[in-house]
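Q: what sequence does this backbone want?
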């Protein structure tokens, strides 16, 4: 199993959890999208975090400093396997308006991903057309050799927790994008209808588990153990894969 978007450092007992996941052959991209989370994910590297992503989430865009960008570049240069992100646009947070601070912070990370030859994990709660426009302007394009394997020459946008429609799928394919599906991706009718149009080798699966993951243990009068969290992740990711298989079978 491979979880393409997991906030390992936001889950309880992350170190123990990372060891359990490694023992279960559960691979993942550990997402770190604000400075405190960068530090925590890097501190976990000794327990076998197989890949990380470092970036600046739109929820903190209005607080980002030049020092944050300098640090981000330094981390990415020291971890040559890391992706950039998650970065993007979110209408629930300040600076969402066209040309606003969210767009500026997103654009800089898109340019950084291209410069360093890294895949870019993208968060979009809002307008996919604006995301696509920034990616085009930054210079993302599909590799003529296909996009199933990343190379330094063809970094890929990753539409994380994909929630777009058919036009977002078409535009994403033009950009060589990967589409990371979450259980929520199947809830919206227009997204569910678009999912079968994604080339199979561009589909990934994710839990996006973070500090809210504990909500599924509501009613439990103690913190769930690392083992219980690991089992819940495996179940959730398996559910997403089954939803996808049903969606392409029915299409
Ligand atoms: Zn996330």
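A:
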């Amino acid at each position: 199993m491979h979880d393409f978007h997991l906030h390992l450092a936001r889950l309880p007992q992350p170190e123990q959890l990372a060891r359990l996941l490694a023992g279960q052959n559960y691979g993942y991209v550990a997402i770190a999208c604000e400075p405190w989370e960068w530090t925590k994910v890097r501190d976990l590297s000794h327990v076998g975090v197989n890949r990380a992503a470092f970036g600046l989430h739109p929820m903190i865009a209005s607080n980002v400093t030049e020092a944050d960008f300098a640090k981000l570049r330094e981390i990415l240069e020291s971890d040559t396997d890391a992706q950039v992100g998650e970065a993007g646009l979110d209408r629930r947070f300040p600076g969402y308006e066209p040309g606003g601070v969210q767009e500026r912070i997103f654009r800089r990370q898109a340019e950084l991903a291209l410069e360093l030859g890294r895949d870019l994990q993208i968060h979009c709660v809002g307008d996919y057309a604006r995301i696509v426009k920034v990616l085009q302007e930054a210079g993302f394009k599909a590799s003529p050799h296909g996009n199933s394997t990343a190379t330094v020459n063809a970094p890929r946008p990753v539409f994380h927790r994909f929630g777009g429609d058919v036009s977002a799928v078409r535009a994403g394919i033009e950009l060589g994008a990967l589409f990371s599906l979450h259980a929520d991706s199947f809830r919206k009718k227009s997204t569910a209808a678009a999912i079968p149009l994604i080339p199979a080798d561009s589909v990934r699966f994710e839990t996006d588990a973070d500090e809210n993951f504990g909500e599924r243990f509501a009613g439990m009068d103690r913190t769930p153990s690392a083992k219980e969290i690991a089992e819940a992740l495996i179940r959730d990711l398996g559910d997403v894969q089954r939803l996808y298989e049903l969606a392409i079978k029915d299409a």
